[in-house]
Amino acid sequence: MLSDDNLEFVYTGARMTTQNVATALLRVESVLQRRPGAGLHDDAPATVRWERGLRVVAGHLNGTQIPTDMPRELGGTGDRVTPGWLMRAGLAACTATSIALRAAARGIELQRLEIVASSRSDTRGLLGMINERGEQVPAGPRDLELTVRIAAQGATAEQLRSLVEDGYRNSPIACALEAAMPVGLRIDIST
Questions:
Q1: Distance CA 139, CA 154 (A)
Q2: What pLDDT is stored for residue 6 in this prediction?
Q3: Is the pLDDT of residue 69 over 90?
Q4: What is the rounded CA–CA span in Å between residue 4 and residue 26?
Q5: Could you identify which of 70, 105, 137, 164 might form a hypothetical disulfide with 74, taking C-beta atoms 3.0 to 4.6 angstroms apart as the criterion?
Q6: Range of the domain at 66
Q7: Which residues pair with 2 in a beta bridge?
């Protein structure tokens, strides 16, 4: 969680200053240099449960639950975020975290870091429609753009640009989207 008044990371009640983050990063990097295999791990699964209509709830092992729904025009209630918004939020949050990690490692005290993730989609793809050429309209976004607003006392524009580019390049979600990672599909049918 980010505290607006002093821009320090707050983690379970303990303040995570830039120095604390940098120290933690050095400790983890030291372990991974000695034992590279320790870096490979299973990520926490996201389990989604359908509730009713188009509303589903995504759940994390720690108990966090995030309900989603679709806009009224598509039969939803329109009172929750959409799954597509969660993807954009995940990309922006992952990239911001990656930038903040690199800032701490470089001793840069961020004063502002805000990322807006926007995209354009064609609803026909979600509905399985075909275009005027007789081809299936892709269901995913046609384009995706991140706008990063960043400020840090004593850092040059070039240092901040490098920080953002490095943070983006090492953001796991950005890497997955850029690489078009294959997704396995396993179907378990209840009888």
A1: 44
A2: 32
A3: yes
A4: 26
A5: 70
A6: 44-81
A7: 9
CA angle 176, 181, 186 (to 5 degrees): 125
Can you tell me the distance from the alpha carbon of 96 to that of 103, in angstroms, rounded to the nearest whole number? 10
Residue 57: what pLDDT? 96
Q: How confident is the model at residue 72 (pLDDT cuts 50, 70, 90)?
A: very high
Q: Which two tokens stand for residue 182?
A: 């294959």
Are residues 77 and 102 part of one domain? no
**Tokens matching residue 31:** 């372990």
**pLDDT of 15:** 54
If pLDDT is split at 50, 70 and 90, which confidence band does 144 have?
very high
Q: Which residue is listed with tokens 């000695």? A: 34
Mutual orientation of helices 157-169 and 172-179 as an angle, nearest 10°?
60
- Give the pair of three-digit tokens for residue 180: 């078009």
Count: domains in the chain: 2
Tokens 């840069």, located at residue: 108
Asked which of 18-32, 134-148, 156-170 is least confident by mean pLDDT, the reply is 18-32
Distance CA 3, CA 10 (A): 7
**Residues 121, 191: one domain?**
yes
Residue 174 within any structural domain of the chain: yes
